[in-house]
Amino acid sequence: MAATEEPEIIESLLKDAENKPVPIRLMLYPDALLIQKQEWISVQLDEEDEVFLNMVREVEIKREPGAGFGLCVKGGAEHRLPVLISRIIKNEAAERCCQLLVGDAILRVNGVNVESCTHDEVVSMLKEVKEDSVSLSVRHFRPASYFLNKGNETRDGPHFAKQESSQLASLPRLEKEWMTALTIPLLYARVSRYIYGTDKPREDSFDIVGVDGSKSGPMYFTEKTTMLTWYHKISAKTQSLLSQMIQMTNQLMVKEDHILLMCWTYERTSNDQNWRSWKEKFLALKAADIYLFDVPPMHSSDWSKCEMKFKVYECMLKLLKDNELPDGRQHCCSILTGARDAICLNIDSRTELLILEKAWYRSSNLAVKRLQSKTFGCTWQDHLSGLILDMDQGFSLYDHQTKSILWSYRFAQLKSSSDDGVSKLTLNFLSDNTKQLETHVISCSDLQTLIYCIHSFLSAKLSTVDPTFLGNH
């Protein structure tokens, strides 16, 4: 955490286990969010007061004939506590002696040790005193002082102001201060307004989860505009840190292996339990691959361990329209692959979704330009063949038996295409010679991957011919 940076600060609320609001304070630094709670802390006393409170004091209480000593006690051996003065009654003997404090432990009564006595035994000893005075040996018991003094008048009250009270020390006291309860690192952190795992957005709160497992819990704000402001503030910090991490990592790698994008997404699951239909996934576009991690890659070896990894040019990204959304979550897209069912992802905002789309096209186009050509095994008119996609040549069909090119067309000659969804692909080309459509039907066992690759090659070719194409996406 950058110590020289002044944090942005705001007060908010968390809810405890009983769903009661607890005040918190957020301190937003460039690389961390501090969540503070109010705690009672002991105020440091003067050295003289410390000495006074730690010493054993001999106190004599003189009372009027027939009156009590004017003090109440709590504790006792049955509670594993000393007998403690819990109250000093106003205008009575104990108060007039000006030598006792609420929280003093009674050690001896008229020289008799009472440290192992019960509450009732000490009360009986005090009641059995026949004289008009009693001698007490006391020492302040600080652990109980904070609690016993709540609701009692302190020695700064009106009575003590009138008398010499130099014999008494200042009472230990507690003050509420903001103390840091949790520090959440913002690098790789995810911020969400949705109730965990559902499509239900929170109206007045959001939460943040750090890569180290630290969790804020829902943080509530009195006004929705304030909540949205802070939601966007924290999101912007996390995105900025990810961008910095990408730049630093890319400096250590060759250009062909550069990372183009990293961001948090949420994958739609097939879970029948409605409360857990979305699972967080960390998406990365690196070189020619798209990765979906359960946790962000912290080490170089993590990239090779990712279980969900696809060649970006063998997939298609589809932004979902409102009528295509699986539930109440907005800003969704699908990653279509030939290897498995579509992967439906949710992203926090429309802006981030468009950033992903742009990075996707850029990653795919760069990958295809580096790849230059790709061949798919297929059959054409019962000939075992290979359909070649080439950035310079376009479409070519290679015959394995004759080892020759049977036909070839530029990408610009493709006018339409269709498929049966299983294995057959129909391609309609405009002949340069006859100016007529020429139709070719090929069969490919990896039909969907072939179709997605054709899209990727066409996109890459178009971006080469029209440099503004990528910018327009």
From TrEMBL:
Any one Gene Ontology molecular-function term assigned to this protein's record: structural molecule activity
Key word tRNA processing present: no
Domain PDZ span(s) in chain numbering: 58-128
Signal peptide interval: none
InterPro entries: PDZ, PDZ_sf, Syntrophin, Syntrophin_4th
CDD domains: PDZ_syntrophin-like
One of the Pfam families matching this protein, by short name: PDZ
Gene Ontology CC entries for this record: cytoskeleton; dystrophin-associated glycoprotein complex
UniProt keyword terms in alphabetical order: Cytoplasm, Cytoskeleton
Protein's cellular compartments: Cytoplasm, Cytoskeleton
Gene3D superfamilies documented for this protein: 2.30.42.10
Source taxon at top rank: Eukaryota
Tagged with keyword Cytoplasm: yes
Cited SUPFAM superfamilies: PDZ domain-like, PH domain-like
PANTHER family reported in the protein's UniProt record: FI16515P1, SYNTROPHIN
Family per record: Belongs to the syntrophin family.
Name the record gives this protein: Gamma-1-syntrophin
